[in-house]
Amino acid sequence: MPGKKMKNKLIDSYGRVLDYLRVSVTDRCNLRCVYCMPPEGVEWKPHDSIMTFEQIIRIINIFSALGIKKIRVTGGEPLLRRGVSSFLNKLKSIPGIENVTLTTNGILLSAYLDDVKLTGAALPDSINISLDSMSKEKYNLITRSGSNRHITQNPALPDMIIPAIDRLLENQITVKINCVPVRGINEDEIIPLISLAKEKNIIVRFIELMPVGSASGLLPVPGNETAKIIKKKFGTLTPYHSIKGSGPAVYYSLKSFKGKIGFINAVTRGFCENCNRLRLTSTGFLKLCLSDSIGLDLKELITAGKNDDEISRAIGEAVHKKPRFHTLSSIYGGQEPQSESMSKIGG
């Protein structure tokens, strides 16, 4: 249309359009999940090394002008950071940002919803809840909730999270449950978790374990095996294409289910050819790929007094170094574990 201003596109050297940015607002977490951290936890970054919300907002405005449309706020546990509800509210008002998602372990979700109700802040478009078990005992085992004095001890979380889910659904918020099946730990939790989608209009997704940080010493349950367990219990998985998402999940419906099922098979299937994402760590480092250390220190550019145009040009130059494939799966020619923990990378 004549006179209409076209939005820029951020394109890497392989022609992939990058329109999705994962933003970590903290590396701190109130759990020590077996596939994310060692039992003793990890050393938190000093507060003064973490980006301020104002700095993050500025960077997202720059990314929006470059074509980023979708933002996922992660951690650590993002709801641990004071002022996050106001921050999420501001994200919703940034021109060009079409979708804002929050990923949380759910422990502080009810308190967050109370704060939103009190302040009138806008909720994200969708909320992903990491939940690997509906059993209190198994949940404690996976998250190490009962064995570490530094962890929020909340053995009733699987029960307590249901009312929070209901509140989100009442507000027309899309709810996704994310489960990471681990061999010998929670295969028997696949069916109980799937049952949540039978009665509620939510999406339950199974994410293949990736060899990152503490997960390198664990055994994954491949997505096709998880699918077989589900089909044996509930019948045929019918492909479902009406869910709009920012990532690589493949969705299915089940007969008589109100909700849907999703699979993210990053190791056995891969989706690097269509990768559309970048990651911003809590310290302001733009990570181009989950398995690679190359990137761009945006916080350093801000501290050095660079203006928005200079930062924008630096981002454009950096994305051309985005690797073609990750190195976490043999399907891309080799499997190299990533030593850095997920909590520091931003999921």
Explain this structure.
With about 350 residues, the chain is of the alpha/beta class. It has a single domain (about 15-345), classed as TIM Barrel, CATH 3.20.20. The protein has ten helices and 16 strands. It has helices at about 55-65, 85-90, 110-120, 135-145, 155-170, 190-200, 225-235, 300-305, 310-320, 340-345, and strands at about 10, 15-20, 20-25, 70-75, 100-105, 125-130, 175-180, 205, 240, 250-255, 260-265, 275-280, 285, 295, 330, 335. The strands form three sheets. It has a twelve-stranded mixed beta sheet with strand order 9-10-11-8-7-6-5-4-3-12-13-14. Helix 1 (about 55-65) crosses helix 9. The N and C termini lie far apart (about 40 Å).
Topology:
Blueprint: E1 10-11, E2 17-18, E3 20-24, H1 53-65, E4 70-74, H2 84-91, E5 99-104, H3 109-119, E6 126-130, H4 136-143, H5 157-170, E7 174-179, H6 190-199, E8 203-207, H7 223-234, E9 238-240, E10 250-253, E11 260-264, E12 277-280, E13 285-287, E14 295-297, H8 298-303, H9 308-319, E15 328-329, E16 334-335, H10 342-345
Helix pairs in contact: 1-9
